[in-house]
Design goal:
There is one protein chain. This protein is of the alpha/beta class. 28% of the residues lie in helices and 18% in strands. It has 20 helices and 27 strands. Strand 7 and strand 8 form a beta hairpin. Helix 1 crosses helix 9, helix 6 runs parallel beside helix 7 and helix 7 packs parallel to helix 9. The structure holds beta-D-glucopyranose. The site of beta-D-glucopyranose (BGC) has 8 residues, from loops.
Amino acid sequence: MIARIAWIASITLALCLACAAGAQSSSAQPSQSATQKAAPQQPWMNPSLDPDTRADLMIHEMTLDEKIQFVHGLGWGVLRAGASVPPADNGGAGFVPGIPRLNLPDINLADSAVGVRMGAREGRYSTLLPSVLAISASWDPQAACLFGSVIGRELRAQGYNMSIGGGMDLIREPRNGRNFEYSSEDPILAGTMVGQLVRGVQSNHIMGDIKHYVLNDQETGRNVLNAVLDPRSLRETDLLAFQIAIASAHPVGVMCSYNRVNGDYACENDYTLNQVLKRDWGFKGFVLSDWGGTHSTVKATLAGLDMDQPGDDGYFSEPLKRAVLDGQVPEGRLDDKVHRIVRSMFSSGVIDDPPVRGVVNPFQGREDAKKIEEESAVLLENNGILPLATGKVRSVAVIGGHADVGILSGGGSAQVDAPGGNAINPEPGISPWGRAIYFPSSPLEYVRKEAGPDTNVVYDAGTDLAQAAKAAAGAQVAIVFVTQWMSEGRDAPTLSLPDNQDALVAAVAAANPNTIVVLETGGPVTMPWARSVKGILESWYPGIGGGQAIAAILFGRVNPSGKLPVTFPASDSQLPHATITGLTEQMMNPRRGAGATARDPANRPRIRPQPFDVDYNVEGMAVGYRWFQEKNEQPLFPFGFGLSYTHFAYSNLKVNPDAKSVSFDLRNTGARAGDEITEVYVMLPASAGEPFRKLAAWKRVSVGAGATQTVEIPIDPLYLSIYSTANDAWSRPAGDFLIEVGGSSADLPLRQVLHLAAR
Ligand code: BGC
């Protein structure tokens, strides 16, 4: 197992080095070596010692009170009206005061899923990146690393030393309100991409984090639900994603989630925290609770929770001190908590190279965000209409989605403050919780630029169907922008687009045969109109460079190359859970009001929801595309699917006799250069009891027009293995393995069966 993890880490390290080096040099922060200012009698300030030794030396000098102080935050701070904000609090989601006499700095934690949150309060700017789901659609580990490095760079410039981004939960529930913060329904894709993202963050000497550990796969009832899943499936799906990311990135923090996992709260779950994370995976960092996710002092501490956040519930303050003094918690366990936190501060560099406040460079951020989006948008349909020819299209009607002013962002604790305020209703300041916030990157403006001065581009808001149809009928091409606003704290009740937008697309398509739809969604949506439009581009939440990137793709300056990291079902009824478990009218609309959320005091639910189980054993290991195979259901668009303005042909598959790698020829048969995401799937022998193909490896390849490349892709032996709960170990079953290669989970032209021995 250890060897396997080292193997994963070594390939991902190789992939991330360039990006990490770039991030370091571009962070432009003067590095102030703590050794220069440290008193000579503080041996732990010697950077040539290893982090564990340095932590031990420091902890030896700590009093019991100082140890207790360092294992919890100081409360909700700026997050909650009326909560106190300590003077040294940097204005982020969490604050742990340091111990100046020991040269131990404060920990300032910032939400930073898709950019640094809460900049506006302090007059700071943060780059809005595309969603995490978007970056996963690039299938490009380097791009994920760049994504993380932008976050790390801007955290440094804003004086934070810890990120609490790194959304890692598997997309089991495509209506989950936080899917835009997450990566994929496939554990290998998710673990690899989020691992790279966290590497990028940490390459800036910022402590990184992954969350929400584990099975926080829906928002409905997240504080009361008990996620039920058999241990083998858990290991091979949701836990595997975390395992891969942890092995490659060594994040210093893992945030445990609100929900229960097979009975125990995730933040006091001995199995997931002590046994799996710390024992089996050798995690050396610290576990921090989600905000308000701690439920006990002794049980949580003994089960593996190290830090309580935001910490005003008192579990890890006086009660923990008493529990240590009366022997309910061994002092060694308290030392272990502190050791994990302090060694992380040494290993990440936040003590030797602390952040220095500066000014974020918004132009560099926008360039990075645009580049990422250009790799991440997925072309889902192209019935000969795209790319639009600059100078040849004489008139365009851009309709809906507030495309005249901006692009949509995701809500909740991932919300970045929009510069100048919400683009649809500008009012400088904080972007409030519970509102759909648009950023000033106007697709209309960039469509006009791409189309050229002789093209008449008109805009219609799309709120009146007849008027929208009229605008569409009067133009050569109609581009409809549709949006799905998603946020922490709420799930989408269905996969349908909200606000009558399906009818809008249908009306426009009926009026103009040359209709293109651009989606800005948090995750998959259904498209009853899919076959009546000529082009569909999924831009996700495209980030601050979104308007430019979308227009550049529509007009062909950029060749689209993203592929779906999640299945797009044809209907809710195809899903393992046709409706979201626990989603009642009341849960959906607690004291409804425009933009109401459970956070607004006026909108609190009348009754605290009763605990309930979410039975993930319904699908077990068959998450996402595997479920569709098992049930023989045809999705609207399959996992791994995405079109390009060129075409690729696959041939000449060779599989290494021990399945360590595959190679094949990839030919670009079209007239322009393009990137192809080549995918390798494996179906294990029948004895494994997994009757579906699973992603095992992939590579994003750039191929010139007409050129052929031989592509070689290594396969991690772990991904040919199954988890035995009896032996508590992974092993490869003996038998026939079907290896398939192609450009989508539903289009795999190359295949070979390989007989392998058990291992
Ligand atoms: C979210 C976390 C977030 C925390 C602090 C919680 O509601 O679940 O993801 O980091 O708040 O803002």
